[in-house]
Amino acid sequence: MTKKRLKLLRKKEKEKRKAANRKDPRSLTVKRKKGQKFANVEERIKTKLERARIKEAKLVERLKRYEVPKIQGPEVKPHELTGEERFFMKKMAQKKSNYVPIGRRGVFGGVILNMHMHWKKHETVKVICNSSCKPGQVQEFAQEIARLSGGIPIQIIGDDTVIFYRGKNYVQPKVMSPVDTLSKKKALEKSKYEQSLETVRHFIAIAEKELELYYRHNALYGLSEIKASATYEDLSEAEDDSKVEDLSLSESDSEDDHLSDLDDEESRDSSSAMKTSSSAILGSSSIL
After folding, report:
1. I need a surface site. Which of 140, 152, 153, 220 has the fewest CB within 10 A?
2. 177-197 pLDDT, tens per residue?
3. How far apart are alpha carbons 176 and 121 in whole angstroms?
4. What is the pTM of this model?
5. Chain-centre distance of CA 188, in angstroms?
């Protein structure tokens, strides 16, 4: 490979990466200012809420691109099955191992195509949702698949399995992937945006609750905190006054001690003078 072709190949790969990054939900984040500091907790929560709401609006706008107008699919006639036939179809579907999985992409053209491929040889097929399926979402999937495929939902097992019957007069359609469904690639992109929107809304709910708790805490304990600070100031002032009094008392005590020391020195001097005078008198008497 020449240098020119290698450069072109690298350029194409770089453009592909950039295009993939543009479709990534993480690219819709609102950039924050570097070194931004907040005066209090309320300001911090409010700025985070504002950024999250901007991102939510962007995600909702981006999800509108993946909306497809619904077209009326094949007519479904569930009243054609009797009770015995329905019971037989349930048992037959439970014994067989053919199934169609639904992953994080949800219901798209590939799911309906796989169902029609199973209906070539089998009258029933199980549609199983993976761990990405939410509780209660199976009913929505059952209605959507019945509209798109023309199958009859016979039984819903738990929160993740639906059994579909193809119908008595089933004819395989020429186009097995319906027109009003997304492709595999677009369905994955849509699921990413939906997941990001769900997390952003969850964060907004938590932040609003935190802000409400902050306001409630201020309403309950705001005055008590002010009183506590006032009492603390009063106590500090009282401590300062007591310290001043202690200092004055210690100064007066030191002055008294100094005066007592002076008196002791004077008394000692007088006693020594008396002793010297008495010794002098005794000496003169002895001479005589």
Report:
1. 220
2. 888 888 898 999 899 999 999
3. 15
4. 0.64
5. 23
pLDDT of residue 56: 92
For the chain, the maximum distance between any two Cα atoms, rounded to a whole number of angstroms, is 168
The model's pLDDT over 53-80, given as tens digits with 9 standing for 90+, comes to 999 999 999 999 888 887 655 555 555 7
Residues in CB range of 71: below 8 A, 6 or more apart: 178, 179, 180
Quick one: tokens of 143? 């209605």
Q: Which of 43, 118, 62, 245 is nearest to 128 (CA)?
A: 118
How far apart are the C-alpha atoms of 218 and 261, rounded to whole Å?
A: 62
Question: What's the burial of 119, exposed, middle or buried (CB within 10 Å: 0-12/13-18/19+)?
Answer: buried
**CA dist., res. 75 & res. 167, Å (int):** 11
Q: Which tokens go with 126?
A: 């199980």
Structure tokens at 34: 């570097």
The total of other beta-carbon atoms located within 10 Å of residue 167's CB is: 20
